[in-house]
Amino acid sequence: MAPSKGKNSNEPCIIPGGFTVLSLQFKTDSTSCHSVFVKEHRVRAEKNASRPLDRTLFAINIPPYCSEEVVRELFSQFGPIQSVELKERPGGTESTESKLSKYFTPASKEGFRVGYIVFKNSSSVTAAKSHSSDQPLVVSTEQKPVKTGLQKWIDQYSDSLIQKDKLQAAVDKFMEEYDKQKEEMEQKKKEEEQQQEEDGDGWVKVTRGGRGGKARPHSEAANQKALQRENKKRKRKELLNFYTWQHRNTQREHIAELRRKFEEDKQRIAVLRAQRKFRPY
Amino acid sequence: MKKPSEQSEFELEKEMGMDEEEISHSEEEGGVEGEAPKGTKRSMKQGASEDGVLRPVKLSRGELYKPPTAEELNQLKEAESLFHCSLLKMQMEELLKEVSLSERRKRLVDSFVQKVTELLQGVPHTEEVELSDQSWLPKDVKIPFLLVPKATKGKFHMAPPAAISLVGSYPLGTCTKPRVFVDLAVTIPSDVLHPKDALNQRYPRKRALYLAGLAQHLSTFPDIGTMCYSCLHGNRLRPLLLLTPPAGKDSGSLTLRLHACPPPGFFKPSRFHPQRNNVRTAWYTGLTAAETADVNEPPTPHYNSTLLGDLLPRVHLQFLSAVSTQCASFKDGVALLKVWLRQRELDQGSGCFSGFVASMLVAYLLSTHRVSNTMTAYQLLRNCLHFLASTDLTENGITLARSPDSTAPSLSEFHSAFQVVFVDPSGHLNLCADMTGNTYKQVQHEAALSLQFWDDPTLDGFQALLMTPKPLIRTCDHLFQLCSLVKLQSSCKKLNLLSELMDHSGNYILTVLPFILSLLQRGLGERVRLLAHSLSPDPEWPVNSVPPKHKDQPPLSFGLLLNPEFAASVLEKGPPADSPKALEFRQLWGSRSELRRFQDGAITEAVLWGGTTACERRLVPREITTHLLQLHADIPESCVRYTGGLLDDVIKMGREANSTGEEESLKVVQSYDDLSRKLWRLEGLPLSVTAVQGAHPSLRYSQVFPPVPLKLDYSFFEREKTTRALVPKEGKPCPTYITPVKVICHMEGSGKWPHDQLAIRHIKAAFHIRLGELLNQQHRYTCHATPTHLDVYKDGLVFRVQVAYHREPQVLRESFSPEGMLCYRDNPEAQKLELETLHRPFLTSTLHGLQQQHAAFGGVCRLAKRWLGAQLFSTDMNEDTADLLVASLFLQTAPFTPPGSPQVGLLRFLHLLSTFDWKNSPLVVNLNGQLTGDAKPTFPLLPPTAADYIEIKNDFIASRETLPVLFIATPKDKKLSIWTQEGPSVQMLQRLVMVAAESLRVLEAQLMDPSQEQDYRVALRPPLDAYDVLIHLQPKQVPLLAQAVDPPHINFTRGSMPGSVASAGGALPVIDFDPVSLYLAELRGAFGELALFFCDPYGGTVIAVLWKPPAFSPLPFKTSQMNARTVEVTGEEVRTVPNVEAILEDFRIMGEGLVKSIEARTERWVV
Hints:
The complex is a heterodimer. Chain A has helices at residues 68-75, 123-129, 149-160, 164-196, 220-237, 244-274, and strands at residues 13-14, 20-25, 34-40, 56-62, 81-87, 113-119, 137-138. By secondary structure, chain A is an alpha+beta fold. Among the domains of chain A are: 13-149, Alpha-Beta Plaits (2-Layer Sandwich); 242-281. In chain A, strands 1, 2, 3, 4, 5, 6 and 7 form a seven-stranded mixed beta sheet that branches. Chain A starts with 12 loop residues before the first strand and ends in a 7-residue tail after the last helix. By secondary structure, chain B is an alpha+beta fold. Among the domains of chain B are: 2-82, no CATH class; 100-267, Beta Polymerase, domain 2, CATH 3.30.460.10; 474-570 and 609-640, Alpha-Beta Plaits; 873-1019, no CATH class; 1020-1160, Alpha-Beta Plaits. The interface between A and B is large, with 87 and 110 residues. Chain B: This is Nucleolar protein 6. Chain B: Keywords: Chromosome, Nucleus, RNA-binding. Chain B: Residues 182-324, 329-468, 475-633, 648-852, 854-1019, 1024-1158 form the Nrap protein domain. Chain B: InterPro entries: NOL6/Upt22, Nrap_D1, Nrap_D2, Nrap_D3, Nrap_D4, Nrap_D5, Nrap_D6.
């Protein structure tokens, strides 16, 4: 099934679409390989400083046990690497919230991922693309074993034992910043309010921003509540069963209600009959 | 009220004759004219019934508000006033259509009867022989009679019948499907009989011989399909010859029953007075007259009524036909009653409440004017049930005889001879002669229960009462069977029942039954609400073999409906030692009765039963049963097959333990209560605690294996350097799994809480740290704080405390529209948080309350979840859903009573899963009884309806497509079914339904059929052949191995030691470390698009993998869909397929150390 079948063993395997197929195995004695598809990174609309077009290699289908370090190790044979970015699906970079401490960043989902590998030299990209699929990349080597399974979970468990004071420190740091931010906001608001007050000469500066907190609460729930209040008021004024036509209407409504129910029941019976639900045994 | 309306109806109909036609015509025209919208609606409505999904009904204004016709008005009115709704009326009509005989079938019956009658006319005469000489019968026809004692006097010869006529339900029109029995009475000519034949079984033997003669004659004709013997309601004195038409299309369900009868009036009915003797002791015992001369001949009421019954079928038919012609809906009413009886397995077998008794009952109600002739079938049924529920025929018998002749016995005479009394129109025969008092009590109980359900507007009474079968095993909490019936012979001796045995002509089972029943009733007393027993079915045997012996009958089953208050009490307190009743008590209990002194100073007789745990105490009724049967009836324990707690084994903790977790759960709850008190009282928190709520199954007694305090062997673990917490050691077996018990701790709302989600999360983390510090300082608990929770190690258990702020979900929902308006938009994150901090604690406390009301609730939950786990459904149906389903069994019990033992609960759970119409109906679980509807009927004229239920149903139908396939509505959650949002999927639900039905079948067979080797665990072993790959795991690394369905022998330690646990202090244990679930999570994360992974969370050592078919069809190359796939290039086209070999290798790599072997079972997609 390998697409390179029958070709010269040292030639890279390039499939239609421009991707080069690199094979990847976990250990040297593994019997089967994953196919990692690589291509130079090329996007029309994106201009991203972290992914320079000429030096970035785009790789898909990277197995779950390959962390960023492992990928860096794997691709360093093609040249020195500047950065590695692994993502769940291809797409633009998000502004990573690097501010958050590691305790508060949500754990990334494990699975197959795509990678953006930024080399230091653009020649490395070509080197990677012309790598033969018959020489598989090896994830776990004697020198640098990759832990999986039980060992990994035990490590994970001991990592999850957080020291209380470190956590406290992280919290304190965040809250400090948050408070500072909030204070600034307050300050700003106050300034705005001050501007709206009369100055010494009795002049008021009129701005677009409205009248601050004094206006009607500008939220959806409040709007709806107001609407309901109106409706209620209107309803209270109405008289029911006063005129003959109103009385007649109620009766008509009653019959209509019965009819509607009758139709519903008929339909239900039809459905049940279709399912042979009337056979008692 | 009723009368005038009816009159007017009649007149109006006359008047409207014309108009009606016109209207219907014009209606049709309208349809043909075909306004576009109407036409499409029609087709849509049809479509609805085709694919079997209900859709909201839309009627156009024109259809809704057109002027009503008088007939329509009447119909609507009738439906409104007589039934709950028109639905019930239509359901009844459909049901009646389903059970009544079609015209075609009737023609078939008529022609077959005609043919048989002709054949019977040609029976030849034979020579007169001695009654005991049966040599004239050919070898291949045997007499359908157990000849005990062998000989009796009299002469016999065959002769053509004097008359042949249809009797019973068929000519009356009350015959119902599915098994159509047509009764044909063949009158034996009077010269064959002798007036003294009533004595000593002479007549019954002649009758049997006559049937044998008929069988011999008929066997020569090809017009008869099959022929076999049976007997009427299990009465061996009344054999029957069953004939079916020759095999052909639809002959299967038609059976002709030939009764042989004496000519009318041949015997004097006064001979059969219940006080008279017709079987002489001398003859029966074979002793000489001299030896028995001093014995008073005992009365033989059952024998007498048997003979009398043969004399009267024609009279009864005439009587019933007369009644039936007066009341138009008599037939339908009887048919409904028969369906009702049949669903309760009460209408067949010896001593049954047969269809004949049912029609007599309706006739009685009509003749005493308790119901009127103009009532509908539904009303007849209701009134019958009402009558049954309110009248005790064991105390106050009823009679149909208007003016009995002077020789007829009085009611009190009947009562002294029979347990249940219902006298026929002649005044001589008790129609319920063979019925035991307990059977009647069961009928009464069922009737009362049914009425109660019918009056409840919140449930579909029709479905519950007429469509749901109620076999004994699913009805009763405990069940036991008497297996080797031959042992009952010795009980007859022990109980000294010779004259009764004579009365029952040697049928020792029926003889002993009432005595056993009364014995058990006395012994069990208040512990049971109802002691029911199965009715032994009518045997059938071919004409060429001798009749089966009594002992060859299927075993007798007894069902116990427990009274939860008293059933499990270990003490049976008797009368004071000096009271005269003490002797009686001692006699009943034998050596088990002891004198005991109680704390209040009383010294009384008492019996103390063993049992320290709830699981043992549940089986106290078993001890009582076996003890009493052994003591008084000589029935050894080995013959009693008691199935009350057989399934408890799978939820027992460990191998030798005899507890099913009730005690352990209680300990967890107590420890939690203590923790919650301590949390409340903590000093030094910046904000106070407003609520502490449990959010874990073990806090509502429904955790399959509740956590147990463990003493840890520290040398088994590594230590983390700074925190000194324990860490699993590599190379050792996986340490014991410690379940964190989740507790939600709500903090006071305050202006100090930030209004930003990130900040709230940080503040919560700070609270976790602070709580941990305080708990450690003030109570010395070992704590471990993380951003999301705080683990507290207490009493050997781990509680996972999670701080919650009630406004957080709201903050998560906030968003600003482009105009700057603040609006709230639901999102999964907020829903998840709300589920965890709001709904789950609420559910936990509600179900905790349910457990307090119904002691069996926890047990049923645990069994049900154990089953779900074992059948690999745990990931599709989460614990909360399963608990809710079980809760519905307790809250919506119709047609049963709340389950009283885990076993019956599991059976009903499986039944619910497999039969509920998930597609078209929401399952409403009325927690706390908060859904009531009576408050506001839509119109004052309408009867009270369950407004909440209707609202739920309408919402459900209106948005069926977007709702989860398994929809559960609760008072707090009427529209969304929050617990089943994640699953199961359609396919999994389908499979679940299938597996549940199969498990139910297997389990019931296991429990009911003693011939099968008992291995009820079969129902908990999943079929693995459907899966593509099996991943076998290292048993040592599966921490919950001991909970497996078939627990292996474990000879290694997991780091825990026996011994008591300190309530505080100690190193933090390894919490929530389960390699199997970690592995599963990784597998699902990596290969979730390609395959489904199944595993039993309770000690399963196999992970079953099922490839998803759509993922395996080749796809075009797409950068976003390349996970674990490889490419195939053909020319310019690139197709991708999963790289199966590499995936299988990945299974091994990712589960390094846990995976033992990988077995690819199907070759389907293996490259």
